[in-house]
Amino acid sequence: MKIIQAAVAELALADGKTDAIHFDDALPGFGLRLRKSGDKVLRSYVAQYKRAGQTRRVLLGSADVLSADKARTAAKQVLAKVALGEDPQQQRVERRTKDRLTLRSVVAQFLADKQDAVRPRTLGELTRYLTGSHFKPLHGMPVDTVASASAGQTNRSLFHVHDRPRNHYETPGRTRRAAGQRRGDTGRA
């Protein structure tokens, strides 16, 4: 059976079953999962593949939200990654694990470690700086996605730091003369 939008609504669970997957004939590994939850039957698209002798499934999305054509396209992408040697489900698991370690939790651990190592005033300033408004936009981000550029961008926007500060020696006339030009000389021949 080819999974199309009209067939999705017609499929039902057999009597006594709480879970079933109907696979597509045209695209091996692409299927529609029916699962009983209370009085309702939940429908979701899945991509199934084998990796290192184990069967793995990737949830593509709910049939209420995702059309059959879009789910088929997503399944092709997942199965293409598998054909190229990747493991999409393992990547999702690793990403979820990395997402649990946020900057907020690292800051809390850092401050706890520094409690006995620094003076009270230094600890107070570190706490104010790391937990205050300076880094607040980054607190919810996973640690591996926080780059020095994003931290620098946060500080630059908070303190209005300019890329190239000018001092009193860098007036336009002085920089022209430093480049070997005279007043009135445009540098053109």
Describe this structure in words.
The protein is α+β, with helices and mostly antiparallel strands. It has 2 domains: 5-99, Double Stranded RNA Binding Domain (2-Layer Sandwich); 101-182, no CATH class. It is built from 7 helices and 4 strands; from the N terminus they run H-E-E-E-E-H-H-H-H-H-H. It has helices at residues 5-10, 68-83, 88-100, 103-114, 120-131, 148-159, 172-178, and strands at residues 19-23, 30-37, 40-51, 54-62. The protein has a 4-stranded antiparallel sheet with strand order 1-2-3-4, with helices on one face.
Summarize this structure briefly.
The chain is of the alpha+beta class. The chain has helices spanning 5-10, 68-83, 88-100, 103-114, 120-131, 148-159, 172-178, and strands at 19-23, 30-37, 40-51, 54-62.
Observed structural traits:
single chain, 189 residues, alpha+beta, Double Stranded RNA Binding Domain, 2 domains, 4-stranded antiparallel beta sheet, 7 helices
- Lateral arrangement of strands in the main beta sheet: 1-2-3-4
- What Rg is obtained from the alpha carbons, in whole angstroms? 29 Å
Helix content: 40-55%
The number of strands is: 4
Q: What proportion of the residues form beta strands (DSSP E)?
A: 15-25%
Low-confidence stretches: 155-163
- Measure the end-to-end span: 78 Å
Instruction: Indicate the structural class.
Output: alpha+beta
Determine the mean pLDDT.
82
Classified in CATH, the superfamily of the largest domain is Integrase, DNA-binding domain
Supply the CATH class of the largest domain: Alpha Beta
The SSE string, one letter per element, is HEEEEHHHHHH
The profile of the biggest β sheet is: 4 strands, antiparallel
Tell me the number of helical segments per DSSP (H or I, 4 or more residues long): 7
The CATH architecture of the largest domain can be named as 2-Layer Sandwich
The CATH topology of the largest domain corresponds to: Double Stranded RNA Binding Domain
Number of domains: 2
Shape: elongated
